[in-house]
Design a protein that fits this description.
The protein is of the alpha/beta class. It has 16 helices and 18 strands. The chain folds into three domains: 134 residues, Rossmann fold, CATH 3.40.50.1390; 127 residues, Hect, E3 ligase catalytic domain fold (Alpha-Beta Complex); 206 residues, no CATH class. The strands form six sheets. A five-stranded mixed sheet has the order 2-1-3-4-5, sandwiched between helices. Strand 1, helix 2 and strand 2 form a beta-alpha-beta unit. It is flat and about 75 Å long.
Length: 510
């Protein structure tokens, strides 16, 4: 009879803590929502402090950003990248509606995380994807979250529509030169002088770029975002009816899921209301500017096309770039040094067709063998990255410091609202706190910035993804595929070395 020996699991495995991440999000920048954001950060910061089985790797928090468009959530994108790099074992989030309000994106991300061996816990719904046998529950709840978002949007649209029809809508954003006070635009005199100067310069013959240079040179107050003056800002000011005291409503509108703001090109009604606020520019000056803008408009000039191989080929002998030649109706590429003086470089010209054919052969070889070439390389780099990566204590400390500073901001905001703090003191303390937050955010960005290994892994992911989805061989040269895949080519007399994404170098005879 066979002898069976039971091997007990290693004690060490029991002591290894599961690496967890927390994702937080609030969907607006209002003070109440920011309190919720602060509460989530504080909750997750303390949740794992005394845990013997789990350790918090990082907090990922999007503030004041819509949940219906995942590409606008920078922290969510960073979370998914860290998951792909093997830094996380489990994700905690408040609810499905915090994770995503779009069923399609919710399922897509959960499937990817499942493939990576990462589980997600939705605390409000008490759902752990580790215990789920299918995606039915996520589909239902994701749909409910999407429906909730759609319903809220519909109610807001109806409310704004009625206000626009009745001419009672309040201003929610102020163009440069104005500030909002109780829903009404009020003139900011220092900025208003800059607006008047822009109109005067334009009508005196200055172009958009010349106006930018003049304003930046003379250190005029910057635009609303604190940036130096640029052409779009000048164009906006010269065409905005708000500067003559009128308001045109519904210049843009939101489309349904996924939510996206688009310009209203007569698809929706617009409402033009006169004398909604005090003007900065008189009507005559504004109309002169519009007439001059129309006169200066010219037909668009098509961009000059460049060759797919332009600036891509380098000579392996002298390092010069190759230039294109046409001889007897055929295209060739030749080293610039050789072209100027054949004795200075021995690498002769080569046919463009041969170069294209070499890339096609290389592409098709990778198509057939990418699993045995790219996947082992990708796995090796991921393993090295995981070994190198360790929890960065400073990252967690910075998150906690930012959370404390934001909490202080909310406290003094409440003190001002209740009359315990005057406006001057409030502005002074708010400015000091915001400056500290900006410095910490800059430090955090520097620490978490992707290093070279991360970039290589991302590029390899792109290559693998491309070849996994490609279903057919390349028959004729595809410029877009070549441009997205090849960084450069080093050329010898009878051989080309293709430098691909991820640092991969492959040779092909010609």
């Amino acid at each position: 009879m066979a002898t069976i020996t039971v091997i007990q699991p290693s004690i060490m495995n029991e002591t290894v803590k599961r690496r967890v991440a927390a994702y937080c999000r609030v969907s607006s920048s209002s003070e109440d929502q920011l309190n919720s954001y602060q509460a989530q950060l504080t909750y997750y910061s303390h949740k794992f402090e005394d845990s013997t089985t789990e350790e918090l790797v990082d907090l990922y928090a999007d503030e004041g950003i819509t949940g219906t468009r995942e590409e606008k959530r920078d922290e969510f994108q960073r979370l998914m990248k860290d998951c792909r790099r093997g830094k996380i074992d489990r994700i905690y989030t408040k609810s499905i509606s915090r994770f995503a309000r779009n069923t399609k994106d919710c399922l897509k991300n959960l499937r990817e995380l499942k493939a990576l061996g990462i589980t997600v816990i939705f605390e409000k719904e008490n759902i752990d994807t580790a215990n789920m046998t299918d995606e039915i529950m996520i589909t239902i709840l994701g749909g409910l979250a999407q429906e909730e978002s759609t319903s809220i949007s519909a109610n807001m649209k109806w409310s704004y529509q009625k206000q626009m029809e009745e001419g009672t809508i309040n201003h929610h954003s102020a163009p440069y030169g104005y500030q909002i006070k109780n829903g009404v635009l009020e003139i900011v005199q220092e900025e208003a002088e800059v607006v008047r100067k822009i109109y005067a310069l334009f009508l005196s013959g200055y172009g958009y770029m010349a106006i930018c240079r003049e304003l930046n040179r003379s250190c005029q107050p910057k635009d609303k975002k604190g940036h130096c003056w640029a052409v779009p800002g000048i164009q906006y000011i010269l065409t905005n009816e708000r500067y003559i005291g009128d308001s045109l409503w519904q210049k843009s509108y939101n489309i349904s899921m996924p939510f996206k703001k688009v310009r209203n090109r007569e698809e929706k009604q617009q409402y033009y209301i006169k004398d909604t606020h005090k003007p900065i520019i008189d009507v005559e000056t504004f109309e002169k500017a519009q007439n001059l803008i129309n006169e200066r408009k010219k037909p668009r000039v098509e961009k000059l096309s460049i060759y797919p191989l332009s600036k891509k080929i380098l000579c392996s002998h002298c390092g010069s770039t190759f230039k294109k030649q046409i001889r007897n109706g055929k295209a060739y590429w030749v080293c610039r040094n050789h072209y100027i003086n054949a004795e200075s470089c021995d690498v002769k010209r080569m046919s463009e067709t041969e170069i294209y054919q070499a890339f096609i052969r290389l592409h098709n070889k990778l198509l057939h063998h990418h699993r045995s070439i790219l996947l082992p390389l990708q796995q090796m780099l991921q393993e090295l990255k995981c070994k190198k990566y360790g929890g960065n204590i400073r990252v967690m400390d910075i998150h906690k410091e930012i959370a404390k500073l934001r909490e202080q901001n909310h406290v003094i905001a409440r003190l001002r609202t209740k009359g315990f703090m005057d406006e001057g003191k409030y502005q002074e303390q708010t400015k000091e706190l915001n400056n500290k937050i900006k410095k910490l955010q800059a430090e955090l960005k520097k620490i978490t910035r992707s290093d070279d290994e991360d970039d290589i892994l991302e590029q390899l992911d792109m290559l693998v993804d491309y070849f996994e989805k490609r279903e057919y061989m390349m028959v004729s040269f595809e410029p877009e595929t070549f441009d997205s895949m090849v960084d450069k080519i080093t050329a010898n007399q009878n051989e080309l070395t293709f430098h691909l994404l991820g640092g991969l170098e492959l040779k092909e005879k010609i």
